[in-house]
């Protein structure tokens, strides 16, 4: 029997051979080439989160798996980039089986929290506490048939969006879309709009967290074809009115940070941008656009189907595991309670928005 060994290294310490093996294992799997599951994303998180780690699983000296994670106080672990990562888990060679708690023990973790565990992660699925729908747009057959599917699924939605775009051009000025805009000014505008949106809706401003801002800036400058940031911008009369910063691989584009200038809100510039972006993405070889698991009416209109992602935690017995349960599970339970009651969820959203307005006065 070959010897199984687990070595834990810093997220930025993987060499070229390990990065290639990691990508080969992902390619051999049936999972989509989600950029959040690429070693380049883990390495970027490692540059802004010093306690980011990768457990390298070796069988007879040969790497057979990679487990990216972050280690916090008292061994409390979390998925790499938790809070902004839309796909999480362990990368394994087909046929390799792991015990989740044994893996945590080898990594000196007392718990490991996830909120977007991808489907098929048999190691961690038994520890999931809830399943979430993640709407996606399938573009594998190109863009040609998609508008017709959109018309069938959401009658009038596409027509209204196109009408808003024409009205924007008529009342403001020429509408122009840039699929991959390298102008840093556009990304700065997006951050301002998104921060204002977070505050307005009473939510925590992600761009007020230095590590998230640094991570986005790093990925925006990346030229790695397997995982890089991309800013798409909608202009009207030469001014940016909506923008999106996403993460992409050669075949998957993750819808990550969309925002728009509220001065042009009546034209629904965000919807116009997404419609244009889907067409350009299909022409660029993107086969799947992942819209993420957060609830939004426009996602229901644009999607072709849902993927499943999972939230939960693996917890080992002991003081560290108890600390996680005391600190996180009541919050998760409260969120599930609200999410499962649509009327209460709408009331909570309105309350958060009102609090945000009061805070900004």
Automatic annotation (TrEMBL):
**InterPro entries, alphabetized:** Acyl_CoA_acyltransferase, BioF2-like_GNAT_dom
Question: What protein is this chain from?
Answer: GNAT family N-acetyltransferase
Superkingdom field: Bacteria
Annotated BioF2-like acetyltransferase domain residues? 159-300
Report the source organism.
Streptomyces marokkonensis
């Amino acid at each position: 029997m070959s010897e199984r060994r687990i070595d834990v290294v810093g997220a930025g310490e993987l060499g070229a051979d390990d990065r290639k093996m990691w990508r080969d294992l992902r390619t051999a799997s049936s999972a989509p080439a989600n950029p959040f599951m690429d070693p380049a994303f883990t390495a970027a998180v490692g540059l802004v989160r010093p306690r980011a780690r990768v457990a390298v699983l070796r069988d007879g000296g040969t790497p057979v798996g990679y487990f990216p994670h972050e280690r916090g106080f008292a061994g409390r672990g979390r998925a790499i980039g938790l809070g902004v990562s839309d796909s999480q888990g362990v990368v394994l060679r087909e046929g390799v089986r792991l015990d989740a708690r044994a893996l945590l023990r080898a990594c000196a973790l007392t718990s490991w929290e996830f909120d977007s565990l991808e489907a098929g992660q048999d190691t961690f699925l038994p520890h999931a506490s809830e399943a979430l729908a993640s709407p996606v747009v399938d573009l594998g057959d190109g863009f040609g048939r998609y508008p017709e599917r959109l018309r069938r699924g959401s009658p009038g939605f596409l027509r209204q969006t196109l009408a808003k775009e024409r009205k924007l051009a008529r009342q403001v000025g020429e509408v122009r879309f840039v699929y991959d805009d390298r102008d840093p000014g556009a990304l700065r505008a997006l951050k301002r709009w998104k921060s204002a949106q977070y505050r307005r809706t009473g939510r925590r401003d992600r761009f007020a967290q230095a590590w998230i801002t640094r991570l986005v800036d790093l990925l925006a400058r990346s030229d790695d074809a397997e995982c890089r940031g991309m800013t798409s911008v909608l202009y009207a009369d030469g001014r940016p009115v909506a923008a999106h910063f996403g993460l992409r691989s050669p075949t998957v584009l993750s819808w990550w940070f969309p925002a728009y200038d509220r001065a042009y809100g009546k034209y629904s510039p965000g919807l116009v941008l997404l419609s244009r972006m889907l067409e350009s993405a299909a022409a660029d070889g993107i086969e799947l656009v992942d819209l993420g698991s957060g609830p939004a009416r426009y996602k229901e209109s644009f999607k072709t189907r849902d993927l499943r992602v999972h939230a939960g935690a693996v917890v080992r017995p002991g003081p560290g595991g108890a600390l996680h349960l005391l600190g996180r599970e009541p919050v998760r339970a409260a969120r599930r309670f609200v999410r499962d009651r649509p009327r209460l969820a709408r009331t909570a959203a309105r309350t958060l928005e009102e609090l945000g307005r009061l805070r900004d006065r």
